[in-house]
Structure formats: C-alpha cells, structure tokens
C-alpha cells in the first residue's frame, strides 16, 4: 500500500527548486503525490523567513495543516524552521529540519516510519558544502529552474538570510551542465538560474563563474533561453555585460536589487555600492541591451530613513526607469544589526511610503510595456487558459493572445495593446 504526500512551498525560487527535487525523489520511492494537503498521509511545509510576514505565513500554514489533517506525518523544513527552531508553532511536528538535509528527506521519512520517533536535526555554524540535488523535469514544460548556488556572505544589516542559509557555495559546474543538458533534452526550452546570491556563482572556487556556465550551456542547440532570476549590481562586471551583448540566448531581463536610492540609507543597510555606481552599471547594461527589462526591490521605512531620504530614493527609481519595483516596508528581523538601530520608522509611515512607491511602480511598468505597442516580439507559449494563449518574451513581458496556440513553441507576435502588467498580441502569419 502506497502512502500519499503533499508539499507546501513558501518563499523563493530556491525553495521551489528544492521542493521539486523532494517531490521527484518521493515519487521515485513509490510515494504518491496528493493535490490536497488535507487528505495526504505526509505533508511537507518548506518555509520562508525573509520577512516577519513570511514567518507569520509559515507559522499559520503549519497550524492549518495540523488542524485540517491531524493524523498526517508533518515535515517542516526551510528558512523559518532554521530561524525559529526553538519557537515553532505549538503543534506536533513529526520531522523538523532547517535548510540542510532537504536532499535526505526521503530517507528521514522512511526512518520515521520505522521508529515512529520525532526527528529534529539542525547544524551549528554557517559553513557547509553545497547540497547536491538534481531535477529531471518540471511540470511547466517550458521553463526549468536550476539551483546553482546557495548561501550569502553580504550580511546586509536588515537581512536574516545569511544566518539561515549559511556561507556562499556553488554547484559544481560539470554537474550543473549535466543537469541542464538533461532538462533541455526532456523538452525545456528555457533555463532559469536560481540561488541566494546567483551572480557570485563559482567565484569562491576561483575556477569558474556565472559567465563560464552561461557559455557552456549556450552550446545546447535545443536550449533557446537562459534566464538569470536575480543578480546583485556588484556581480555585474564587464565580462557579464559583454556576454549580455553577444549572447542572444541570454535573456534581456535582470532583477537587480536596489533596496534604496538614497546613499545614506544604502550605507546604513551595509549595501556594497552607492547610487552613482549603480546607475553607471545600469547605463552600461542599457548600452548593449536598450530594451532590457530591469526590475528591482526597494525597502521603505528603513531605520533612520527621513522623508527627505525617501524622496531621494523615489527620484532615483524614476531616474533609473525600472519596469517593475517590488516594494517592501522594512521588516525588523531579530538577530540583525538593523533591528537594534535607533530611529525606527512607525508602521503608518512605512505603509504610506509603500503606497506612494507602488503607484510610481504602476506608472513605470505601464510606460515600459507601452514602448512595445506595434512592435514585433517573439513569445514562448507556456499555457492555454480559457481560449487565451499566454507566454513571455525573452525580456519577460507577459503576452496574451486570443486562440489556442501550441505550448512550448515560439511565435512571432505583434503587440496590439499594453496594460500595466501585460500586453495583448496577434500572431504574425
């Protein structure tokens, strides 16, 4: 008799990749995937701790699982588990681990089924080896994610992630190439690199870097797109910009976290650049890819941020001309330097500043999308829903086309109308 399982994934693309790996391993070991956690024998909650809200969602999910499925074997892992191992929700958790040993969850579950004893394991210190995982294919036949890097050594003053993800470490380049080749041969036309500090891939080895990996996999004929999910401005060097210019498989979309457009705030955040250095790099990028889609993260209400600092940040965002700004009110994280800083900004002010920047983001997004009205673009179709075919351009513009088109296929499309977060188009015969 087989046992059923369900995985609940919270947070980033790294977690999503790890959950996909866990799912594949369980299926290979004769467990059966169940769509609802309420009726599963085993429920795995892969938690996130990037903000207080993420912790709250993780805690709520754990409570909901135990309430809705009291008889299940509950496995809790991930960043929130790592960060709050001593104060997890007061419900019975059968297996509790952090970010290490996710690759061993199948054997841990099997051990639990024999012993029926609660399993809790965490490791001391930040240093660890890269935990190898290999995913063969994703349900989304178009896009495949590959985790090439883990950990962070930046220690931004607001961020808990270096403490819960550990030191910077990378997947061996030959193993990465092998995994990507298999994903491509299994039909995936787009590869998305994920990591905690993706741009620093391989640099701790002194043997290879992100550009080396991009060049290696560009040789695969069936691979049409290589996407970098996010990258720090400090990781974008002349070598990367040259590759962006010359390699048409490398997508014209970069998520480059800014966090603040005010130099005083950047310094307090322990970011490793100032606004001039940031803007100079952006200009270099736009010189080689004028239509690039540049998205970012901005924190508002950081401790000590005055109204003048906020206005300065807003004006800098306008100056850069991002096409999307993910706005985050500052979240106090216990154990970080910013949590003890003076001049903490009140919640009402943070919410007001977030609203203001979100409105600017909407205007910037529509302005960017409107530039493509009447233009011809190439769209890789990902899904067909309610008679509408949906896909993205290489620079990650969402395109909706009336009619049923072939999934995982490229089409030349003329952009007809632009909205704030997508465009509509018509296939060019």
Oligomer: single chain
What overall form do the CA principal axes indicate?
A: globular
Helix content: 25-40%
Total domains, how many? 4
Derived structural class: alpha/beta
The fraction of residues in strands falls at 15-25%
How is the biggest beta sheet arranged? Answer: 6 strands, parallel
> Strand tally, please?
19
Give the distance, in angstroms, between the N- and C-terminal Cα atoms.
53 Å
Strand order of the largest sheet: 2-1-3-4-5-6
CATH class of the largest domain: Alpha Beta
Low-pLDDT residue intervals, each spanning 5 or more residues: none
Q: What's the CATH topology name of the largest domain?
A: Transcription Regulator spoIIAA
Q: How many helices in DSSP terms?
A: 12
Name of the CATH architecture of the largest domain: 2-Layer Sandwich
Average pLDDT score: 96
Report Rg: 22 Å
Overview of the structural elements:
With 429 residues, the chain is α/β, with parallel strands linked by helices. It has four domains: 4-121, Methylthiotransferase, N-terminal domain (Rossmann fold, 3-Layer(aba) Sandwich); 127-251, Transcription Regulator spoIIAA, CATH 3.30.750; 280-371, 2-Layer Sandwich (Transcription Regulator spoIIAA), CATH 3.30.750; 376-427, Nucleic acid-binding proteins (OB fold (Dihydrolipoamide Acetyltransferase, E2P)), CATH 2.40.50. Helix content is 33%, strand content 22%. The protein has twelve helices and 19 strands. The chain has helices at 13-28, 52-68, 79-83, 105-115, 161-165, 173-185, 210-217, 238-246, 263-268, 275-288, 307-320, 347-370; strands at 4-9, 32-33, 42-47, 73-78, 95-97, 119-121, 143-147, 149-150, 169-170, 190-194, 225-228, 253-255, 293-300, 324-329, 376-385, 388-392, 398-402, 410-418, 423-427. The strands form five sheets. It has a six-stranded parallel beta sheet with strand order 2-1-3-4-5-6, sandwiched between helices. Strands 15-16-17-19-18 form a five-stranded mixed beta barrel. Helix 3 (79-83) links the parallel strand 4 (73-78) and strand 5 (95-97). The chain is globular.
């Amino acid at each position: 008799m087989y046992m059923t399982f369900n995985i609940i994934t919270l947070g980033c693309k790294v977690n999503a990749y790890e959950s996909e790996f866990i799912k594949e391993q369980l299926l290979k070991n004769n467990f059966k995937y169940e769509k609802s956690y309420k009726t599963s024998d085993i429920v795995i909650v892969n938690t996130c701790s990037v903000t207080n809200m993420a912790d709250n969602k993780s805690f709520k999910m754990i409570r909901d699982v135990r309430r809705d499925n009291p008889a299940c074997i509950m496995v809790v892992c991930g960043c929130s588990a790592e960060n709050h191992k001593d104060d997890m929700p007061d419900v019975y958790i059968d297996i509790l681990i952090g970010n290490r040993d996710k690759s061993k969850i199948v054997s841990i579950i099997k051990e639990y089924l024999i012993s029926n004893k609660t399993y809790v394991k965490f490791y001391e210190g930040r240093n660890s080896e890269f935990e190898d995982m290999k995913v063969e294919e994703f349900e989304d036949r178009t896009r495949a994610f590959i985790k090439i890097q883990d950990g962070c050594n930046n220690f931004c003053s607001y961020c808990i992630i270096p403490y819960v993800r550990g030191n910077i470490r990378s997947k061996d380049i030959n193993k990465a190439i092998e995994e990507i080749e298999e994903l491509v041969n299994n039909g995936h036309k787009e590869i998305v690199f994920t990591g905690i500090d993706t741009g620093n891939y391989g640099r701790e080895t002194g043997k290879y870097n992100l550009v080396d990996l991009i060049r290696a996999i560009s040789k695969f004929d069936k691979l049409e797109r290589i996407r970098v999910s996010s990258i720090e401005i400090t990781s974008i060097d002349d070598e990367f910009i040259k590759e962006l210019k010359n390699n048409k498989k490398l997508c014209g979309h970069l998520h480059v976290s800014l966090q603040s457009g005010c130099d005083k705030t950047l310094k307090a955040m322990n970011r490793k650049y100032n606004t001039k250095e940031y803007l100079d790099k952006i200009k270099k990028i736009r010189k080689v890819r004028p239509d690039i889609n540049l998205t970012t993260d901005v924190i508002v209400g950081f401790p000590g941020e005055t109204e003048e600092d906020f206005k300065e940040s807003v004006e800098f965002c306008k100056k850069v001309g991002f096409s999307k700004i993910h706005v985050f009110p500052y979240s106090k994280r216990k154990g970080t330097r910013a949590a003890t800083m003076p001049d903490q900004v009140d919640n009402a002010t943070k919410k007001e500043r977030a609203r203001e920047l979100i409105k600017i983001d909407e205007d910037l997004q529509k302005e960017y999308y409107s530039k493509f009205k009447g233009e011809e673009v190439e769209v890789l179709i990902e899904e067909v829903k309610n008679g509408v075919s949906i896909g993205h351009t290489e620079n990650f513009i969402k395109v909706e086309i009336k009619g049923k088109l072939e999934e995982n296929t490229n089409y030349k499309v003329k952009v007809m109308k632009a909205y704030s977060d997508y465009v509509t188009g018509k296939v060019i015969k």
